[in-house]
Write a structure and sequence with these properties.
Helix content: 25-40%
CATH topology: Rossmann fold
Number of domains: 1
Shape: globular
CATH class: Alpha Beta
Strand content: 15-25%
Largest sheet: 7 strands, mixed
């Protein structure tokens, strides 16, 4: 039996990353035949996630192979990513030859800062979608938005949906369904509050007040 050709999946990771933005899609995408997952940073050192543990990257920018699929997760650390020219140049260089350019959550803002969203339809975490237009993108209200080889996912858990979409595109729907079944991805959340359209308006207002109004304003000032 012929071994499948390596399919290089490169995740940009950074301090302050929302780990599920990365680990959710990685768990799914790693099931693609020939998948080789790389976690890339400018300098190899433990990367602190948003939930108290660290990830040890596998490669530096300089040694990272060319991605077949490039993915930028999100997290509060995005504010530093969009201000770091070396990181943005890494994204530009990788995107130039990547088959898929992807993001989860606020990772789309990093793609935007690298100039990769101009003229494209895209999405992001619901609290940050207003910032997409600053990068020349058009916000589309969906968990997964595909525009050519650009695929952006909404907040956190939607990264799993995007990854299954890619598996189906590369290896067929049957494999994607098999991966979904093997992971028992069958969401039945205990509460109907996973999207602003469904959540209690008071809860939405509370989150804006305590978290998102400040972080969105801060990012808007950085983006200019």
């Amino acid at each position: 039996m012929t071994e499948p050709k390596p399919f290089h999946i490169v995740f940009l990771i950074f301090d302050g990353i929302t780990q599920l933005d990365f680990t959710g899609p990685a768990q799914v995408l790693s099931r693609i035949p020939g998948a080789v997952v790389h976690t890339a940073v400018q300098e190899i050192k433990p990367i602190q996630t948003d939930c108290g543990f660290a990830i040890l990257p596998s490669t530096s920018f300089a040694d990272c192979p060319q991605a077949d699929l490039l993915c930028v997760p999100g997290g509060f650390g995005t504010k530093d990513v969009i201000q770091d020219e070396a990181t943005l140049q890494f994204l530009r260089d990788q995107a130039a030859a990547a088959t898929y350019i992807t993001s989860v959550c606020t990772g789309s803002l990093a793609l935007g800062a690298a100039g990769l969203l101009d003229g494209k339809r895209a999405t992001s975490h619901w609290a940050y979608t207003s910032l997409l237009e600053k990068f020349g993108a058009t916000y589309e209200k969906a968990r997964v938005v595909q525009d050519g080889n650009l695929i952006t996912a909404g907040g956190v858990t939607s990264g799993i949906d995007f990854a299954l979409t890619v598996v189906a595109d590369i290896a067929g729907q049957q494999l994607a369904e098999a991966v979904q079944l093997s992971l028992e991805y069958d969401p039945h959340p205990p509460f109907n509050s996973g999207h602003p359209d469904a959540a209690d308006p008071k809860l939405l207002a509370l989150l804006h007040e305590r978290i998102y109004d400040k972080t969105v304003q801060n990012l808007a000032e950085i983006i200019g």
